[in-house]
Structure formats: structure tokens, C-alpha cells
């Protein structure tokens, strides 16, 4: 079969979600679609369940990572195996409306094989009593939200070729960086060498930024297709541990070289060093405010230093300068006022209270 869309799904601790996720994708109205499930060395029986259900389905590829490498590297593995004209990404605990990929693919073809189709929001299923089946939530518990900000589009819109305009709106969060609400032309990703970096937090932010500033034809649609389940399985929702803090700091220390690859390739950024600085500052601020500072304040400095994970990361990253970096880092983070990440505030109880007002 010639596939129009390949949907790449990382899998980790996902046994309760697998059937709903994969069946939902296979039941899309677009039938020329393959699902690529990438097992990221899940410690539960996710792989066994997936094989039992789909091993003989020609539309499902089941791949395995050699070790736990995070969702970004799992997506990279899926990209190498993808056969579709377009690429989509979905998390194993989320879902997609039944007509999503048919509509997004049609939109891409209507715009001369657009590089990126970007829907400007998502739908939050909030029925706490039926979270196992994401597609059977009563409509009163569906909360459509616009993840993009600034000037929300009311109709299908092709972005201007003016990269300064794209940059100014990006700074104001006009184009949200989640990957689940987008469709990417596979050849576009190959030609621009776009893949996910080694960082395990906000890797989608860097990827989507790179796509935004590399795309020839970038199309926005106000339709909301992606069903985003608020669960505790993502890296950013598993709670604050010293391992999480190490992961957050690793992302913080490595985000600059990850995004520099795009900045150096785009003429607009080569000619506008202030914009380069603005991009890097924005991404560092996101990682600090959403992950590093809240984790530091919740764990406490003594706990962070006790098991040696943070010190080991510093030695690995900075070598003989590790002690100086540790001193400077801790001095800076002791001074921050109490911080609560918006990510930790996103929970079903709060949103149910909001829609039931």
C-alpha cells in the first residue's frame, strides 16, 4: 500500500492505553495510513500486548529501542521507518478525531503539498469516570482549547514568507510547539534534516521551531483534532524526583546547541543576531520556569545533591569547570521566588470545575 500518512507513537508504560490509541488511528477515515509504535523499553507488558493485538496487521509497525532513550529518540526511530507521504505524531495515551488525518492531508494537497499543516488547538477529554476510552466521553466533558495565542486564526491561513513576522508572533506564543496537532511532509523533514534532539524535555519545542522557520508553505487551520488526555504518564507529569531534575537540567544545558543547528541554517537568523539571542533566551526561560525551578524548589537543594545525579551530570557536561558551574547554578536558584509551573496546574479537577461553573 502507498501510505499517505505515517503516525508515529512512542510507547512507555502504556498497557492500559494501547488498544484505544492504535484502534483509534486504524479507524481513521483515511485508510492509507500506517501506525508506527516505538517501544521505548517499557518495563511493563506494553510490548507483549501490542504484539498480541497488532503483530499481524500490515498497517502497524512495532519497533523497539535498544534502551530507554525518551520520546524524542523514539520518534526519530519511527521517522526512519516511516513510509507515508506525510508524518504525524501522537502520544500513546492521547487520541485523534476520526476524520483528522483525512482533513489535514486534504488541506496539504489543496496547498500544493504544504510542508506543515498546523491545527491551532486541541480537545481535552475530562470525564474522570471513563478515562480508559478516550473516544466515548460525553460531549459535555470535551473542552476544546486554543493552544496558540496572539492572533487566533478564524479560517485556513497560509503563513507569510516574512520570517521576521513569524518570529515576532512565535515570541508571543502564536504557534504552539506541541507536535500532536501537526502534519509534516516527510520529504520536507528529510531535506531539512529535521529530527528530535537528545534532550528529553521540550524536544518538541525545538523540533516545531525548526519546522516553522524551515517551511516553505506552512498552513494554519482553526480546526481542533487532537484529543489530549491529562494523565501522569508523560515525563513532565510523573512528579518531581532527582531523576526528573537531572533530565530538566540536561535539557537546559543542551537546548542552545540543539536550536543553534536551525539558527545557523536560516538566513534570517544569520542576519539578525538579536533574534538569535531572543530565541535562545525564550527557550531557556521556558525550561527554567516550567521544569527546573519548580523541581529545585519542590525537592530542595539537600535532596538534589544527596544522590549525586546532579553532580554527575555537571561533571559529564562541564568537566573541570563543574564545581564553578554548580556554585553559580545553586546561587542563582536560591534567589528565585516560589514558582509553580503551568504544566503542574493542568489537571482534570481544576478543568472540570472551570467548565461546570
Description:
The chain is α/β, with parallel strands linked by helices and 357 residues long. The protein has 2 domains: 5-235, Spore Coat Polysaccharide Biosynthesis Protein SpsA, Chain A (Alpha-Beta Complex); 239-345. The protein is built from 15 helices and 12 strands. The chain has helices at 18-26, 46-54, 71-81, 100-110, 163-171, 186-191, 203-214, 242-265, 267-270, 273-299, 301-306, 309-318, 322-334, 342-345, 348-355, and strands at residues 5-11, 33-39, 60-64, 86-89, 95-96, 116-119, 121-125, 142-146, 157-158, 182-185, 218-221, 226-227. The strands form 3 sheets. The protein has an 8-stranded mixed beta sheet, with helices on both faces. Helix 7 (203-214) packs parallel to helix 8 (242-265), helix 8 (242-265) runs parallel beside helix 12 and helix 12 (309-318) crosses helix 13.
Amino acid at each position: 500500500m502507498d501510505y499517505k500518512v505515517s503516525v508515529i507513537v512512542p510507547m512507555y508504560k502504556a498497557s492500559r492505553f494501547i488498544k484505544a490509541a492504535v484502534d483509534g488511528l486504524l479507524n481513521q477515515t483515511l485508510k492509507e495510513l500506517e501506525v508506527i509504535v516505538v517501544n521505548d523499553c517499557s518495563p511493563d507488558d506494553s510490548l507483549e500486548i501490542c504484539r498480541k493485538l497488532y503483530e499481524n496487521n500490515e498497517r502497524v509497525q512495532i519497533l523497539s529501542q535498544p534502551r530507554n532513550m525518551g520520546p524524542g529518540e523514539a520518534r526519530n526511530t519511527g521517522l526512519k521507518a516511516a513510509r507515508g507521504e506525510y508524518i504525524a505524531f501522537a502520544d500513546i495515551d492521547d487520541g485523534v478525531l476520526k476524520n483528522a488525518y483525512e482533513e489535514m492531508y486534504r488541506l496539504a494537497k489543496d496547498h500544493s503539498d504544504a510542508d506543515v499543516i498546523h491545527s491551532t488547538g486541541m480537545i481535552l477529554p475530562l470525564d474522570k469516570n471513563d478515562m480508559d476510552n478516550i473516544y466515548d466521553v460525553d460531549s459535555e466533558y470535551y473542552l476544546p482549547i486554543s493552544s496558540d495565542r496572539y492572533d487566533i486564526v478564524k479560517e485556513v491561513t497560509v503563513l507569510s514568507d516574512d520570517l521576521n513576522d513569524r518570529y515576532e508572533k512565535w515570541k508571543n506564543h502564536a504557534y504552539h510547539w506541541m507536535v500532536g496537532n501537526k502534519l509534516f511532509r516527510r520529504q520536507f523533514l528529510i531535506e531539512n534534516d529535521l529530527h528530535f534532539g537528545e534532550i528529553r524535555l521540550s524536544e518538541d519545542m525545538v523540533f516545531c521551531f525548526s519546522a516553522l522557520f524551515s517551511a516553505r508553505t506552512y498552513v494554519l487551520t482553526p480546526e481542533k483534532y487532537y484529543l489530549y488526555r491529562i494523565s501522569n504518564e508523560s515525563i513532565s507529569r510523573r512528579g518531581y524526583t532527582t531523576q526528573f531534575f537531572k533530565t530538566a537540567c540536561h535539557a537546559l544545558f543542551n537546548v542552545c546547541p540543539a536550536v543553534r543547528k536551525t539558527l545557523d541554517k536560516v538566513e534570517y537568523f544569520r542576519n539578525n543576531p538579536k533574534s538569535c539571542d531572543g530565541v535562545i533566551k525564550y527557550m531557556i526561560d521556558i525550561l527554567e520556569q516550567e521544569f527546573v525551578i519548580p523541581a529545585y524548589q519542590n525537592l530542595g537543594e539537600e535532596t538534589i545533591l544527596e544522590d549525586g545525579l546532579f553532580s554527575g551530570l555537571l561533571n559529564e557536561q562541564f568537566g573541570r569547570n563543574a564545581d564553578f558551574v554548580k556554585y553559580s547554578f545553586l546561587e542563582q536558584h536560591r534567589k528565585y521566588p516560589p514558582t509553580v509551573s503551568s504544566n503542574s496546574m493542568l489537571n482534570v479537577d481544576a478543568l472540570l470545575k472551570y467548565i461546570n461553573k
